[in-house]
Amino acid sequence: MSDFEPGTGVVRPRLTVLSGPSGVGKSSVLAELRRQQPDIYFSVSVTTRKPRPGETDGVHYHFVDREKFQQMIHAGEFLEHAEFAGNCYGTPRRPVEEALAAGRPALLEIELQGARQVRVAMPRAQLVMLAPPSWEHLVDRLTGRGTEHPEVVERRLAIAREELAAEKEFDEVVVNADVQSAAADLLSLMVGPRISGV
């Protein structure tokens, strides 16, 4: 979906928000998207949780304490923010705006509630849902791991039902039947016709 500068015919870069249920393959699709188009700006979230082994500040997350996070909320520095499992997460506004101003398409990968907040904060944002080929496929992905308690899996499936039911709130849906194809479909939605020969 292209977004033209009024009166010029020039396509402006726009913010794309990718959401989808747990187990649908968002990480794999985004890794392939990075490979296909390294120039895309991928937002780095701010979080109050502690870094896990191997995580680097500014690469995986921006790690801050709760006091700093609250200051950022009050200063209007987030496009969206939420709390999960006792930790806060937020998408910083300025880097996204700077990437778009520099002509780079920008991508956020966030959950449904965050996507709704971004829709309010930046109405021009394009919301894309990454969906499984079928409900059965998603159930297989979530139960096939075999590493989680059945109650946890049931909770994830309940959340996934709620997320998939919100499909009509999204501008586009990309079905992840194949990672390379899904990444290519997402890329074409982000850059539209402007990329050929650029």
UniProtKB/TrEMBL annotation:
Limits of the Guanylate kinase-like domain: 13-191
Protein name: Guanylate kinase
Coiled coil regions in record: none
Gene Ontology MF terms in the entry: ATP binding; GMP kinase activity
PANTHER family: GUANYLATE KINASE, GUANYLATE KINASE-RELATED
Keywords of the record: ATP-binding, Cytoplasm, Kinase, Nucleotide-binding, Transferase
Chain residues that bind ATP: G20, P21, S22, G23, V24, G25, K26, S27
Enzyme class per UniProt: transferase
InterPro entries recorded: GK/Ca_channel_bsu (IPR008145), Guanylate_kin-like_dom (IPR008144), Guanylate_kinase (IPR017665), Guanylate_kinase_CS (IPR020590), P-loop_NTPase (IPR027417)
The EC number(s) this enzyme carries: 2.7.4.8
Record's function text: Essential for recycling GMP and indirectly, cGMP.
Protein family per UniProt: Belongs to the guanylate kinase family.
Chemical reaction(s) catalysed: GMP + ATP = GDP + ADP
Source species: Lentzea guizhouensis
GO cellular component: cytosol
Gene3D superfamilies xrefs: Guanylate Kinase phosphate binding domain, P-loop containing nucleotide triphosphate hydrolases
First-listed, main subcellular location of the protein, grouped into a coarse class: cytoplasm
Compartments where located: Cytoplasm
Lineage: Bacteria, Bacillati, Actinomycetota, Actinomycetes, Pseudonocardiales
